[in-house]
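Expect sequence, tokenised fold; for instance:
***
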Amino acid sequence: MPVSSPAQFRSHESVSVRDSPRTAALYLTGSREGFAQARDFTHHTLDCWSLDHRSDDAVTVVTELAANAVLHGLPQCPAGEFTVRLRLTLRRSHLVCAVTDPSDGLPVYPRPEDSLLEHGRGLHIIEALSDHWGWTRRSPVGKTVWAMLPTRSQP
């Protein structure tokens, strides 16, 4: 059955989608399947928004944001709760990829001298692929880390 908008995309119970033609959201688990769902969801949503040309960068950014949230934002949460949320929002000239987690810990941007480390390069990747990125505290707890990708094709 073809899907006409991201708001209609449903793959199984752990998925929750916003009902807006310019916003789509997905609740993630900390599993390999959850990351696969996030990638599929991002591809599908961008396809619906005619942004196929931004899929590779968006999927990379979403994967890094989600991995950081699960790795650093979920350790203190009970297993099985859907406490990480991916939200894609289409604006006039940008796609906003945002991941919300329950941790109050701020994103840690690696120092230049750590460039040879095996882990910890996610925010560098996000910075390289986006026009802007940042984070916002949530009330009463948690944070949202976001990145804005241009919707126009890059030369």
